[in-house]
Design brief:
By secondary structure, the protein is mostly beta strands. It contains no helices and 22 strands. The chain has two domains: 13-136, Jelly Rolls; 139-235, Sandwich (Jelly Rolls).
């Protein structure tokens, strides 16, 4: 029998620093909920809005897989590996922090905010050499289908990380139905609704709701309105 955990959008942690408006699906910084530390290997899911001309100064990370998914606007990235890049909607960015990196993220736009998801996944290898990668996806490849954006395999679609995890994005028309078959036994799926209304495994979900599902091989998905979805399959043994 599948197990589920529901995180309604309005139950998330929230911190508004003026320049940064951030919602936390899991404990982060000043938000601590002992029942919401992580979902398997998924440690952080932050829904961030950065004000025009503002950003995160240089800060360190280590031994974490860090994925950024821009939703609106342009985000400039700089890091201690010498990378300088702009990421925008349609791009996926990944860093393996490994033995340690520093990086900054800045909204160079003077008249519009940047909205992006910041996701952390526990790695299955520690102290790897830090690395950076970004790709641009074809947005048409997620219309009424699940577009793979991340996997453990450098030769597979999307970016890759040091973990047996698979991420997919979908943009669905109302009444579209599909199913998702888990890639690895023992994994679970955390679904995050980017927009619209979707029923997953019989649970009605709305914008920015999260639903974790495990002890199942497949999940059923039905779009109750025009909608967008992020599916994150991760190992549960954490």
């Amino acid at each position: 029998m599948p197990h589920t955990i529901l995180h309604k959008a309005n139950s998330r942690g929230h911190a508004n620093h003026g320049w940064l408006d951030s919602y936390h699906s899991f404990s982060f910084a000043g938000y601590y909920n002992p029942e919401r530390i992580h979902f398997g290997a998924l440690r952080v899911l932050n829904d961030d809005t950065v004000a025009a001309g503002k950003g995160f100064g240089k800060h360190p990370h280590d031994n974490m897989e860090i994925i950024s998914i821009p939703l609106e606007g342009d985000l400039q990235h700089e890091d201690s590996m010498g990378n300088i890049a702009i990421i925008k909607n349609g791009d996926i960015q990944v860093m393996s922090a490994g033995t340690g990196i520093t990086h900054s993220e800045f909204n160079k736009n003077k008249d519009a905010p940047v909205k992006f998801l910041q996701i952390w996944v526990f790695p299955n290898k520690k102290n790897v050499t830090p690395r950076y990668s970004q790709i641009t996806l074809n947005l048409k490849d997620r219309h009424n289908k699940l577009q793979q954006i991340l996997s453990p395999d450098p030769n597979d679609a999307g970016v890759w990380i040091y973990q047996d995890a698979w991420f997919h994005l979908g943009k669905f028309d109302k009444d579209f139905s599909t199913s998702y078959a888990l890639k690895k036994k023992g994994n679970g799926v955390y679904a995050f609704i980017l927009s619209g209304d979707i029923t997953i495994a019989g649970q009605a979900l709305n914008k920015r709701d999260g639903l974790g599902i495990w002890d199942t091989d497949t999940i059923q998905i039905k779009a109750d309105s025009d909608s967008e979805l992020l599916l994150m399959e991760v190992p549960m043994l954490f």
